[in-house]
Amino acid sequence: MGTKNNVKVSRLLPSEPPELVVYDKPQRCPYIAERVARLPLRLPARPLSRAELDERLAAGDRRQGFVLYRTACPSCQACEPIRIHAPSFTPSRSQRRVFERTDRVLRVEMGTPIVDARRVELYNRHKQGRGLGDGQPPIDLEGYRDFLVSSCCDSFELRYFIDRELVGVAIVDRGASTLSAVYCYYAPERAKLGIGTFSILKQLELCRKWSLDHLYLGLYIRDCTAMRYKARFLPHERLIDGHWTRFER
Q1: Starting from the edge strand earliest in sequence, which strands make up the sheet with 12-13, in order?
Q2: Which of 112, 136, 138, 198 is most buried, with most CB under 10 Å away?
Q3: CB atoms near residue 141 (< 10 Å)
């Protein structure tokens, strides 16, 4: 047990598989200005089985590359893990319109996550277009691989094409009874297509096709504009005070 910046760090956590804490200290919040965040990064000792991924998602974990994290902020509970129960979800009228319109335009492929110049360029333009860069340098091939291609679980990507042009990508993790939407990006000039909404609905379609229970959408943060859209998918559940609470339409 070590201590750094008044944060205790347990180097090895006795989970199954065991997890090594590789980073744990306060930092500037990436979601809400002028707040302090704590996002301990944990490296599983081996790749997770699908059932083990389900357990970690149900506990509120998210994945970034090979590592897992769960918010443990000192004085803030703004981040709420959010999931949709796929069998009971019914899209709203506007969501159905987006899906039907975009489904006529996009060609969808599924495959193993890869890195190339087109993906890196799309990712950087999407992040800049949504105002999420915050002065950070653009990601390069190595950074993209570490963030979205490297994985400690079963992952795949959905590729969105217009004719032969790649216009969007969604990275998805698969558990035994769940899917987890890791990250989705698309060409900013195609924003009117609603690729983000389409991608969530497409993943819910896969959940039903594969008889899976939940689609995890990551974190809902009411005070972060870029994260607020997730609450529009109803009904959904949010992890609040350790309990999954259902929110109806």
Answers
A1: 12-13, 19-23, 41-44, 67-69, 62-64
A2: 198
A3: 13
Which conformational region is residue 65 in: left (phi greater than 0), alpha (psi within -120 to 50 degrees), or beta?
left
Q: What is the pLDDT of residues 11-43, one digit of tens each?
A: 888 899 999 999 999 999 988 988 999 999 999
**Maximum Cα–Cα distance for the chain, whole Å?**
56
The pTM for the full model equals 0.93
Going from the N-terminus, what domains does the chain have, and what CATH number goes with each?
Answer: 2-79 (no CATH), 82-247 (3.40.630.30)
Tell me if 216 sits within 8 A of 228, measured CB to CB: no
**Residue 202 CB contacts under 8 Å (≥ 6 apart), including other chains:** 99, 108, 158, 170
Q: Of 24, 22, 20, 28, which is closest to residue 7 (Cα–Cα)?
A: 24
